[in-house]
Amino acid sequence: MKTADEVQNILNGFTCNREVSVEIYESYGRVLFDDVYSKVDVPLCDKSTVDGYAITNEGLNNDFLVISDEIHAGDPADMLINPGKCIWVATGSNIPKNTDRIIPFENTINSENTIRIVKMTKNSNIFKKGTDIPKNTKVLDKNTLIDEKAIGILASIGMDKINVYDTPKVAILSVGSELSEINEVNSKTLTAIVRKAGCEPVFLGVVEDSIEKITSAIKNAVLQYDIVVTSGGTSKGKKDYMFEIISSIGDILFHKVKSIPGMPIFAGKVSEKPIICLPGNVASCLVCGYAYLLPMFLNAAHKTFKRELVIADLSEEFNSELGIKHYFPVKLKDGIAYPAFRGSNMITSIANADGLVDVSENEVKVRKNVKIWLI
Amino acid sequence: MKTADEVQNILNGFTCNREVSVEIYESYGRVLFDDVYSKVDVPLCDKSTVDGYAITNEGLNNDFLVISDEIHAGDPADMLINPGKCIWVATGSNIPKNTDRIIPFENTINSENTIRIVKMTKNSNIFKKGTDIPKNTKVLDKNTLIDEKAIGILASIGMDKINVYDTPKVAILSVGSELSEINEVNSKTLTAIVRKAGCEPVFLGVVEDSIEKITSAIKNAVLQYDIVVTSGGTSKGKKDYMFEIISSIGDILFHKVKSIPGMPIFAGKVSEKPIICLPGNVASCLVCGYAYLLPMFLNAAHKTFKRELVIADLSEEFNSELGIKHYFPVKLKDGIAYPAFRGSNMITSIANADGLVDVSENEVKVRKNVKIWLI
C-alpha cells in the first residue's frame, strides 16, 4: 500500500508528448511545444501613431507647408516629403522614409491646401519598426499555456499555426454486472473530470463482470488511448476481477492507497499505457477523480494543477486515523464547514459538498482553521 | 460618454435565453435551463452495502444458518430468506424483501454450507431505497453551472439528456484597410476572450474601410449570431466609419466610455442584437475584452464573472485623471507591480502584463496596497 504522495508521483510519471500543429484561432487552452521566436519586427516598418502631417525637420523652418499627398492606413508610402511640403497620414499608416516627425492635425491650422503648425508635441509620433517586438526575440517559452495574451503575441508576429502538445485521450470503462439495472454514474463524473483537466474523454461503455470481456476492452483501449480509467471491480468480492486482470496482462504500479475514501484504487501499466482502476462506489470514485486523476490528467497535458483553498472551522471535530490521509467532504455555510459525507455509495456525499478537507497522515484530530480544497 | 459601470449595465442587458437539450456526457460547463427534480428514488430499491449474508431477525436466534442461495450484483432478488437460512449477497446487490440485516462475511465463520455469526455490526448494512436521493426531491436549481458534481446527481437520477441554455454565438469582425498588409491581431485575441467565457466565436473575416462592405457584413451577422464585436474604425480619422454605420442601421446604446485604454468603444443595437465596436489598437482592444466583453459574454451565457484579485504595491506612483477609470497593466515581480503599458498600439503593453490595476474614477494617485486583477 502506497501513500497518497507516492501514488501521485507514480501517476505523474505519464505525460503525453506528441506534437501537433493547430491554427492560432484554435489554440486557446493548448500548451506550446517549443519556445517561440519572432521572425519579424513588430511593427514591420515605421508607422504613424496619430492622424496628422508627416514633416521633415527642415520643414519646421517654414511658416506654411503645402499638403502634397495623403497616406491612408493600408496605403503604400513610396513617396518622399519634398522641401516646403508635408503629407497627410492616418493613425497606423505607413509614413515616407524621410519623415522626422508627425504633427497631429489638431496641432495645426489648415487653410486650403496648406497647414501652419501651432503646437509641437514632445515625441515624434512615429511608431518605430520593431518597437513592440524586435525581430529574433524569444517571445514565448515552451510549455506556456496559450491564453488570450499569448495569442496576441503569436498573431502579432504573424503566425497562423503553432505547434502544441496533443491533448491526452482518456478512455473510461465502467465495470459491473449491476450497472445494467441501476443508473450508471461513474463514467459520467469521470468524463467531467477529464474535461475539467482539458483532456479528451472517450467512453468505452459498461462491461459486465466477465474476465474475458474486461480483458478484451482494456487490451483494445491501451492501443488507442493515452490513459485508461476503470471503475468498479476493485474490492475483494467474488466477482471483483480487476486486480487479477491487470496483474495478468500488465505490471502493477501500486495496489491500494493510504487514503480514504478510495483506498481500493490501484494502477497498472499495460503496453506502456497507464490504467487506473477506481472503486465502484460513486463517492469514492469521484473523490479519487479529484484527488488523483485531476492532477494526473493536467500533468499529462503539461498543465499546472493548483488547488483553490479556503480556511474554515469544522462544525464538529473530525477524528482521523494516523497514517491514513482523509479526503473529507464538507459543505460550507456561513464560514463553517459541515460534514457532507454519508457513505461512499451515495453521490450526495460528494455532490452536495463544497470542498474536501485534506486531513494529512499525521493528523488525528482536526477542528479549527482547517484548509479546505474547494471543489 | 458613460461610466464603466453604466456601460457594463447596458452590455449585461443581453442574455441568450434559448433552450437546448444535451446529453449528460456533453453537459460539462453548460448551465441548467430548469430546476431539476428526481423522478426516482436513489437507490431504486434496498441494496447491500457489504459482501455478506442476508438474514432475518429471527435467524439471530439460530446457532447456525444454512446458505440457501447467492445474489450477485445485478442479479434479481425475488426469493425470500427461509427460517434457519441465510443468503449470500454482494456489495451493491439487491436483497430479499424480508432481509432485516446483512452480516459482513468477515464477521462469520463459514463451514461447508453453513455460517456462524461471531460478531454483530451496529447498523443493518442495508442501503435503503431513496436514502441517497428521495423521489420528487429538487436536486438542482435552474441556472446551476453543470460541473462533475451536478453530473453525478443527474446521472444518479437516471437522466440521459438535460435542458440547458444555448451557448451564445459571438461574431467577430476586423475592420481596417491596413489589415491587408499587417498581421491582424484583434480577431484572434477576441476569439480567445469568447472562448474564455465559454461562448462560441465565429470569425467573419477582415473587411476594408468601406461603408458598404462593413454595413453588409454587420447586417448579415446580426441575422445569425447573438452578439457582434468589431474592432477598428472607431476613432475620428477620415476613414473611421463605424459610428456612422451603426447610427444609420441601428440604435446607439452608448458612445465612448470614461475609461482608459479603450475610451472610443461604443455599442449599438441592430435588429435587437448588440454590436460592440472596439478601438483597433491591439492593447486597447484586449483591455476592452477583459474589462467589458468577458463579463458581458459570461452574463449572456448565464454564468458568473469573478475577478481573481491580489494586493500589491506599485513600483512607482500612478497618476490618474479624476472622473476616468484606468485599467493599468502591470507585471508582478517579487510582490511588486511594475508598469507594463507602453502604448495602446503595442501588444506587449498587455500581453506581458500579469494583471490590471483598476484605478477607479475617484482615485488620482495610487501606489500602496493596490488591488490587482490577475489576467
UniProtKB/TrEMBL annotation, chains A, B:
GO terms for biological process: Mo-molybdopterin cofactor biosynthetic process. GO terms for cellular component: cytosol. Residues 171-299 form the MoaB/Mog domain. Keywords: Molybdenum cofactor biosynthesis. Transmembrane segments: none annotated. The keyword Transcription does not apply. GO terms for molecular function: molybdopterin molybdotransferase activity. Pfam families: MoCF_biosynth, MoeA_C, MoeA_N. The keyword S-adenosyl-L-methionine does not apply. Pathway: Cofactor biosynthesis; molybdopterin biosynthesis. NCBIfam families: molyb_syn. This is Molybdenum cofactor biosynthesis protein.
